[in-house]
Amino acid sequence: MRWIHVAALTGLMGAIAQVPAAEVRAQTSAVRTITEVELVATEGDRLELRLVADGPLETLAPETVGADRVIYILNSQLQLADRRDRLTFEQPAAGIETVTIEPDGLNRIRATIRGGSADTVPAVQVIPSDRGLALTLTPAADAIATDPATADAMDPESADPEAVDPAATEPAPAAPNAIQIVVTATRTEEEIDDVPRSVTVIDREAIDAQTRLNRDLGSILSRLVPGLAPSTGSASIFGQSLRGRNLSVLIDGVPQSTSRNVLRDLQTIDPSAIERIEVLRGPTALYGDGATGGVVNIITRTPSEDGFEATTRAGIEFAPTDLGDSFGGSFTQTFSGRSDNLDYSLSASFGWTSDFFDGRGNIIPPDPNGQGGLADADTLNLFAKIGAEIDPGQRLQIVFNHFDSTQETDYTTDPAVGDRAGRQRAEALRGLELEDPQRSRNTFINLEYTNDRVFGGDMKANVYYRDYLTRFFPFDGRDFASLGNSINQSRVESERFGGRLQFNTPLDDADRLRILWGADYSNEKTAQLVGIMDGDAFDRSGGLTFRRIDDRVWSPPVRQSGLGLFTQANWAVSDRFRLIGGLRYENVSVDVDDFTTLAGNAIAGGDLNYDALLFNAGAVLDLSDRVNLFASFAQGFSLADVGLALRNAPAGFSVEDLKPEAQTVNHFEAGIRGNWSTLQASLVGFYNQSENGTSFTAPGEVLRAPERIYGIEAAIDWQPSDVWRLGGTLTWSEGEVDTADDGNYDPLNGYRIAPLKLTTYVENETLPGWTNRLQLLLVGSRDRFENEAAFGQRSVNSYATLDFISTLDLGPGTLELGIENLLDTDFFPIVSQLQTDDIYNTAGRGRTVRLGYFVRW
């Protein structure tokens, strides 16, 4: 099957027009959203126009109007990511002059297929689907006989320029054979056939489906992304590596990490504000430092195309073992629309969780691994995106997001568990008194300008500001001199601003050779402070009362600025072979004042400067129109965590003594992927190594030593019929470290390397408007170490959890049901099993039910 043209776009953009009431069909079913459109050649001279939607589409019988064959699609809206409400394909085949998709009144779409004359009107056949429909277009025989043009000679570039350039990504949990825009792999919009990297895209529909189970982004991603370790079940991604290394979280391309990295980067935005998530698996330097394992780029919600649209979603959650103490809920309201050249997308969401219960019916400690928890939390997210089309080629847009999650709990972890013989499970202890609860707050503002007519190509510029605070649960460090022999509660405060400028410039008239070039700048100030607690009050209360008596500096304020210069070439050598490669130069300066550690050591401040030059190259070869091979080499890097190093520094140490060489990772990968009408699959292998890898050997202690990591990832999705879907992913990796730098490698610890991970799902539209899905997560075992008392070296036992998701069209909206851990399995997440202290050996969440309702109005 040969591609003719693709206009395949994702988003939440609608086209709504007013028509007389007599022309409006009674709305007896839900309004469907058409998010993707593609036109392909099939057998003979036929074409197939495929419309991907969030459910089945209804049509009227095809009509003949002059030389046109017209078909009306009812109860539907176009919501395409290019913000256009009309798509036209010019001369796609002999006997077909144009194919046009456009709104035709309120919640109705008109498809017009124009023949050469009234005597050569094409035939149209409707093929229903549970996710849209397809139209088979057959030119009249007379037109084919007299027209010298054939489908095989058709130039894809002859499509109407009003249609958006095609873009695509690797198969993901999206509509079958869907084509989606992906920007993360190259910082520009590209088709998957042109990207020599592994990319997974999670669209709005998939995000909504997984939030019916829970709203934690770490859990959502772990179920859907190959290469990503299973969820920690906490507020932290420490122990949830991507290809064995750290991931970098972006919001609309802007990094969300801090120089004093505490790994709460996914606790920065609520799923209700997300349009899609693009995950680039494997190191990259395209966005700066930190992406040694890959990039998670969160794309915020896009405005609807025309008029006004609103959605409301409300739900409750509970554990059947204790309905009252586990009761929680959420509410989300969105507004979106367009007026003249202005568009907007607004949302507000609020959620609250109560106590979490494990598979035995016991309350789970709210700080499961000492890195922050999700239970007993109130979460608020406010989002706004407002844009203006200055003219057809220029756009100005501002994005604002405020996320605030605070844990108000009556429970702590019972310290007495650690005094019992044998391996114990962590237990919750009621009666906590804590003045300043755990919290994550992130405020983000991004102003962006785009221009499609600069140097013959396009330009994008943005400036951003971020204000971040995260606070942890108190820790009893009275046995540790480096912690001042005190009970302390740490918090990280950070401010960051910066800007990005990039140009995507064609170097030839045929647009076969393009170069992306530009610069990034950032300026950040981050400090880690601690509140010192009254030890006597803590002891008298049995570990329940935390009364702050002093404030100290743990990691000094670090002022860090960075400038990155980059260039990236993209060369279509032929129609079946493409090369991509580029460079990035990064220069970073750090400024630290004099300070005193918690242990009382005086540290002299100073300035640091260091840089890195990174390279990447890749190639894609199309074996056929449906299958391609790809291979790439890429370098990623991460800067030294200066604050972490200084807080444990000995007396007489100075900042200049650090010599913080950046960690550089060399990454190789090769894979094959295929995308057929009912089957999408990919298989990739990777190997990466670093001469100065970074691993924790104990909390706060870092080892720099040679490392190597390798693995295999696979994904498959199959749609055997219009009502059935099934598929899954496989992730296997292993890693080694040369601790003594003598050529002898030992296994990397379990926080870095997760066991085998398998996911699988089966989904069925049991009745029209009623869809059910079962999904399984299977985590294997890993036992690589003799000394299980060392950090991260305990053996990991396998476990499996089963989830159930169901939706039912009911009334004007959709009834939603999710049951997480359907079989109430008693299991321990990987990070819990790795803990050497039993007070953090915390069980995972047991059976949890969520019931909600969604309506679009």
What attributes characterize this protein structure?
disordered N terminus; globular; 52% strand; 47 strands; 22-stranded antiparallel barrel; six-stranded mixed beta sheet; 857 residues; single chain
**How would you describe the shape?**
globular
User: Biggest β-sheet, characterized?
Assistant: 22 strands, antiparallel, barrel
User: Could you tell me the strand content as a percent range?
Assistant: over 45%
Secondary structure: helix percent:
under 10%
**How many H/I helical runs?**
7
Mean pLDDT: 88
> Span from first to last CA?
39 Å
Low-confidence stretches: 1-29, 142-180
Using only C-alpha atoms, the radius of gyration works out to: 28 Å
Overall strand count = 47
Structural class: mainly beta
Describe this structure in words.
This protein is mainly beta and 857 residues long. The chain contains 7 helices and 47 strands. It has a 22-stranded antiparallel beta barrel. Strands 1, 2, 3, 7, 11 and 12 form a 6-stranded mixed sheet that branches.
Which helices and strands, and how do they pair?
Layout: E1 3-8, E2 32-41, E3 47-53, E4 58-59, E5 63-65, E6 68-74, E7 76-78, E8 87-93, E9 96-103, E10 108-114, E11 123-129, E12 132-138, H1 141-146, E13 198-202, H2 204-211, H3 217-224, E14 247-251, E15 254-255, E16 274-281, E17 294-300, E18 307-318, H4 323-326, E19 328-339, E20 342-352, E21 377-391, E22 394-407, E23 411-413, E24 428-430, E25 433-434, E26 439-454, E27 457-471, E28 475-477, E29 486-506, E30 513-533, H5 535-540, E31 545-546, E32 548-572, E33 577-592, E34 595-596, E35 602-603, E36 606-622, E37 627-638, H6 642-647, E38 663-675, E39 679-698, E40 701-721, E41 724-737, E42 746-747, E43 757-767, E44 770-779, E45 799-810, E46 813-820, H7 830-833, E47 848-856
Parallel strand pairs: 2-7, 14-17, 25-31
Antiparallel strand pairs: 1-2, 2-3, 3-12, 4-6, 5-6, 6-10, 8-9, 9-10, 11-12, 13-16, 14-15, 16-17, 18-19, 18-47, 19-20, 20-21, 21-22, 22-26, 23-24, 26-27, 27-29, 28-29, 29-30, 30-32, 32-33, 33-36, 34-35, 36-37, 37-38, 38-39, 39-40, 40-41, 41-42, 41-43, 43-44, 44-45, 45-46, 46-47
